[in-house]
Amino acid sequence: MTGASLYPRLEPLLAQIQKPIQYVGGELNAQVKPWDDAAVHWALMYPDAYEVGLPNQGLMILYEVLNERPDALAERSYAVWPDLAALMRQTGVPQFTVDGHRAVREFDLLGVSFATELGYTNLLEALDLAGVPILAKDRDETHPVVVAGGHAAFNPEPVSDFVDAAVLGDGEQAVGDITDVVKAWKAQGRPGGREELLARLARVDGVYVPRFYAVSYGPDGAIAAVTRTRDDVPARIGKRTVMDLDEWPYPKTPLVPLAESVHERMSVEIFRGCTRGCRFCQAGMITRPVRERTITGIGSMVDQGLKATGYEEVGLLSLSSADHSEIGQLAKELADRYEGTNTSLSLPSTRVDAFNVTLANELSRNGRRSGLTFAPEGGSERIRRVINKTVSKEDLVRTVTTAYANGWRQVKLYFMCGLPTETDEDVLEIADLAVEVIKAGREASGQKDIRCTVSIGGFVPKPHTPFQWASQASADTIDHRLRVLRQKINEDRRIGRSIGLRYHDGKPGVIEGLLSRGDRRVGRVIERVWRDGGKFDGWSEHFSFDRWTTAAEEELAPFGVDLDWFTTRERTEHEILPWDHLDAGLDKEWLWEDWQEALSEEEVADCRWTPCYDCGVCPTMGTEIQIGPTGRSLLPLTVV
After folding, report:
1. Which phi and psi (to 5°) does residue 219 adopt?
2. Which residues 6+ apart lie within 8 Å of 225 measured at CB?
3. Entry pTM
4. pLDDT tens across 319-351, in order?
5. What is the per-residue pLDDT for 639?
6. Most buried of the four, 319, 389, 424, 612, by CB within 10 Å?
7. What is the DSSP-derived secondary structure letter of residue 103?
8. How far from each other are the two terminal CA atoms of the chain, in whole angstroms?
């Protein structure tokens, strides 16, 4: 029977693997709807392990939005670990959902949310386990339509051979439109087969169907042109933007994991978008404009979510949560509301210039005083001007000194290595900064038991940012700079032992760079890596740099390009980039000008508080910045 549970076949396998609980389903607030009651069936996949995928806000929101529709159902699927995958292949158990343990192959749509490009091999593994052809051209109307979403969908070209469609931008309304199209096509008797269905989807705002666009290349290896193969699909695909987030208060009933996950808290997105203009930040660029939830909207979501989950921590999420125009009032009123309970509030990484101790005290009033995380991103003031992260050393030292003086003992500082124009000296200033933080903290607190953790990630240039033209630093360059940084930190052991240094080597970042700025030719590399055993590339114990470099060398050579061509090569102004036909609203000329300003170390202000500087998003997308103050206040909760 279609939609039947695979659990009787799966259960005997679970006793033979590690962490079987992640596959059993039945979480608090999970849903299993009758299969025959729904006209359209969605399998929503996060292409990583359950512990990483379950807390993902995007997937959780779409899960609720779709399941609220009486004519649709949505179930979740995650990447299965190699131990279970091997048993599934031996016994013929296909890729399944964790809700109803139904075969993914039987769903109408497989929606895959990519937060990172290193999940691409997991998509191929899931398709193969599901019994779905990994190449889109080999599928027919009996196979699910594979739809990519998430930030990586803004350049889906490297996986264009494997996905049928990609959704650009916010998904809440887009998944509803897609559902309507599939429902109508099925009700009409599936006219025209899969080709007609995809043509209809290609006409939905924000939906890109790669098969209807042909790419040609010039003798230098660069793209010569991207052209439509049908006149009834758009030449340029624009992103979707949800306005008035108070009308979309999701998730209302967040999922509570059965197994340990990376975030054990209830999360509320307090605003979407960012206009700080950090030049490295793809998320900030592609999610413009800023759209704030109101205090009352946030308060309602927190109240409902806590009642639905039993969590004792609420994360107030956004790209820069302390930038909410009413964050001080919001934190105080939430702390007032839950005073005397075990409910605590938390912010993710906080900008130095947006932090104050009054805010931090409100956040920790009802809970433990945990560490604070700040993200200066660049080690020197010069490199911070390049990346438009306008924070001075004095600002940082003053802020962390105030935190230490008010009872905090642990501060985490996040930096990047390999930024455009960066030198060894820029990176070594990270050590100087950390030493000053420890010294100032000891003096302010009168204590020796304070710590500063320095966490460093390798910079990867991303599409739709001013750095999309930049040369990426090689793995050897990254590793060299991390090595000299560690030596500098350890020069004075009396202070160095209070500084923790966390980093990854430069090799995974090179592959992420290949996948983030690659074109369709890179698909051959991904397939080769997967066929050679590659999966879970975001996990250091599974990642093989040699496997990727070998595949890139052999698969790209026929095209006259190589790994360095996609990574360490700087692009020219008028080069056609693989994602130029995918519109995030940002004017390409403005991005280029901002790239030139970066090279000149010029800073750009936040357009929330200054006149518009013509990035192009609002007029192109028909949107506008939505910020407070609203003048609203939270009312005390009524005890029933």
Report:
1. -65, -20
2. 215, 216, 576
3. 0.96
4. 988 899 999 899 999 999 998 888 888 887 677
5. 45
6. 389
7. B
8. 46
